[in-house]
């Protein structure tokens, strides 16, 4: 939704432009107020990060005027652009991956690789749920930096991640991993879209503590991820899963 422009819906391989629906400032304001339940102040920390998670795992991104203080983003004002990302759940999407890994004698570190928009987070969610529900004694802690995995809203997840899953949200992956190891006694830590050096260092610390990691990363294939992050990072994961198209992936 862009002020004074037509409504556009982006799909996987196409877009639909509604030229007879021109977005007004009132449309933007009304959508923003509904998303925040008319209490924008309660979501200030999220809003200054440029997005807001809403029930169901959906996310609304904001565009407007960035306000800085001491060279740090303090707020976003005059919001006139909204990007609503619709979360999807595909039941049993992680079934094949679960079947390939459940017979192993030990839990593996798993890296899910995919270009944007092909379902990394969707696969991660369903695989977490499968392990959590069907593997007694296996506690999982999800580090949900942007509330996209769990759809956390007001402290309550709106997406089912299984009965043995704990969630730490609104924290960096590094801080979340360290907190989980210290306090939640997980056997597995799950996180989405690793990429920073500090993320990789935190994953290494999890390995030293005997905790396994399931993570996702942007890339076309293993070689692409290796070029971006280095062989040492890739070697931390015993199994790689590559998503080639929506709903289809291979394990290696």
From TrEMBL:
* Keyword Aminoacyl-tRNA synthetase on entry: no
**InterPro entries registered for this protein in UniProt:** AAA+_ATPase, P-loop_NTPase, Spore_III_AA_AAA+_ATPase
Kinase listed as a keyword: no
Q: Which Pfam families match?
A: Spore_III_AA
Q: Which UniProt keywords apply?
A: ATP-binding, Nucleotide-binding
Q: Where is the AAA+ ATPase domain?
A: 106-247
The UniProt entry, under SMART domains, shows: AAA
Which SUPFAM superfamilies would you find in this protein's record? P-loop containing nucleoside triphosphate hydrolases
Specify the protein name.
Flp pilus assembly complex ATPase component TadA
Instruction: Specify the taxonomic lineage.
Output: Bacteria, Bacillati, Bacillota, Clostridia, Eubacteriales
């Amino acid at each position: 939704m862009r002020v004074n422009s037509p409504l556009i819906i982006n799909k996987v391989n196409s877009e639909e432009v509604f030229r007879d629906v021109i977005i007004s400032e009132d449309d933007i304001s009304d959508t923003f107020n509904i998303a925040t339940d008319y209490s924008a102040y309660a979501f200030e920390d999220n809003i200054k990060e440029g997005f807001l998670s809403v029930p169901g795992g959906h996310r609304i991104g904001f565009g407007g005027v960035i306000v800085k203080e001491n060279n740090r983003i303090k707020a976003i004002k005059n919001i006139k652009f909204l990007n609503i990302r619709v979360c999807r759940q595909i039941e049993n999407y992680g079934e094949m991956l679960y079947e390939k890994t459940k017979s192993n004698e030990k839990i593996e570190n798993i890296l899910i690789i995919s270009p944007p928009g092909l379902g990394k987070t969707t696969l991660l969610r369903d695989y977490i749920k499968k392990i959590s529900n069907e593997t007694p004694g296996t506690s999982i802690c999800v580090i949900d930096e942007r509330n996209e995995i769990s759809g956390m809203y007001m402290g309550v997840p709106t997406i089912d991640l299984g009965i043995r899953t704990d969630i730490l949200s609104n924290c960096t992956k590094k801080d979340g991993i360290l907190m989980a190891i210290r306090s939640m006694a997980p056997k597995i830590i799950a996180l989405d879209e690793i990429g920073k050096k500090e993320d990789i260092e935190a994953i290494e610390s999890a390995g030293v503590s005997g905790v396994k990691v399931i993570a996702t990363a942007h890339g076309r294939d293993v070689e692409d991820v290796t070029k971006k992050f280095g062989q040492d990072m890739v070697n931390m994961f015993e199994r790689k899963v590559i998503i080639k198209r929506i709903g289809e992936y291979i394990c290696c």
